[in-house]
């Protein structure tokens, strides 16, 4: 179970790093502004959590909602620690809502990952 959650969390951060690189290049070399890509950043964030939950559910084969939820929870914890220790600030209400939705999205990904990956079926 722990390996599947780690695999999903790693997937989320890899997607986030690649997306950050792409967005930074777009901002640097085009006329785009940060406010013009906010929606795309949010969409990519939700997609990366869904994919991370999907990967953890597929790797774990059972209890996709637990695996996906754990993956989303670890992601939220890492972001919270980074923000709290690095910037000395807590989550705002808006961020709490976003991260709650991130956890739910990762749970949905985990459920689909188990079902698409052919999880254990009881006869």
Automatic annotation (TrEMBL):
Keywords: Membrane, Transmembrane, Transmembrane helix
A Pfam family that the UniProt record links to this protein: DUF3792
The UniProt record lists the keyword Membrane: yes
Residue ranges crossing the lipid bilayer per the database entry: 6-27, 39-58, 64-84, 96-117
InterPro entries, sorted: DUF3792_TM
Name this polypeptide is given: TIGR04086 family membrane protein
Protein's organism: Rossellomorea aquimaris
């Amino acid at each position: 179970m722990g390996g599947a959650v780690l695999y999903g969390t790693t997937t989320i951060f890899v997607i986030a790093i690649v997306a950050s690189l792409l967005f930074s290049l777009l901002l640097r070399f085009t006329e785009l502004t940060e406010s013009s890509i906010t929606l795309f950043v949010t969409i990519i964030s939700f997609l990366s959590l869904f994919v991370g939950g999907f990967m953890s559910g597929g790797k774990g084969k059972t209890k996709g909602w637990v695996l996906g939820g754990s993956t989303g929870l670890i992601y939220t914890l890492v972001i919270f620690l980074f923000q709290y220790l690095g910037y000395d600030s807590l989550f705002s209400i808006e961020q709490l809502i976003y991260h709650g939705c991130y956890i739910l999205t990762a749970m949905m990904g985990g459920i689909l990952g188990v079902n698409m990956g052919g999880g254990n079926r009881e006869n």
